[in-house]
Design brief:
3-stranded antiparallel sheet, 35% strand, alpha+beta
Length: 160
């Protein structure tokens, strides 16, 4: 009679092999999860930065268009100016205004962007046919985007 077990014909895994395979699988799944988490955070930060850049560009373009189409521009303070049409009627008021959410850039009393506005300036240039418009906004992550443009008023001078 033979007392040694016959292992040669048996197939399958031992308990130790299963535990090791499970442990290795958990490490791989955890690593993949971490990579996905880092990538999603990175994508969100990049998306927030693009949104901030778009909002700054949109605000500057809207103000530039309003200035170019106006007949008169009146600078009220360092953080506010108004545009008027040919008949002398007020068309738009742009200003940086303190709200509960912080400083905001506003057009006619409505926020132009959800981000905080750190800098807003409209400065007349010495030639009286152009002005410099500067805007800087900041999102909740602390990212800032600034845009500065020189606006030339075609075929006329403008009383600032």
């Amino acid at each position: 009679m033979e007392l040694t077990p016959r292992r040669r014909n048996r197939s399958g895994f031992t308990l130790i092999e299963m535990v090791v395979a499970l442990f290795v699988s958990l490490i791989v799944v955890a690593a993949l999860g971490k990579i996905m988490l880092v990538n999603s955070r990175s994508w969100k930060l990049g998306n927030d930065k693009v949104l901030l850049q778009q909002n700054v560009s949109d605000a500057v373009e809207r103000m530039s268009h309003s200035i170019r189409s106006s007949r008169r521009l009146r600078v009220i303070s360092a953080t506010e100016f108004r545009t008027y049409n040919a008949a002398g009627a007020l068309t738009h008021t742009y200003r940086r205004f303190q709200t509960a959410g912080g400083q905001r850039l506003q057009e006619d009393g409505r926020d132009m962007a959800p981000q905080a506005c750190n800098t807003f300036a409209c400065t007349a240039n010495a030639d009286t046919t152009s002005l410099t418009l500067a805007v800087q906004m900041q999102n909740t992550d602390g990212e800032t985007v600034a845009r500065r443009t020189r606006i030339t008023i075609r075929n006329r001078t403008m009383a600032f």
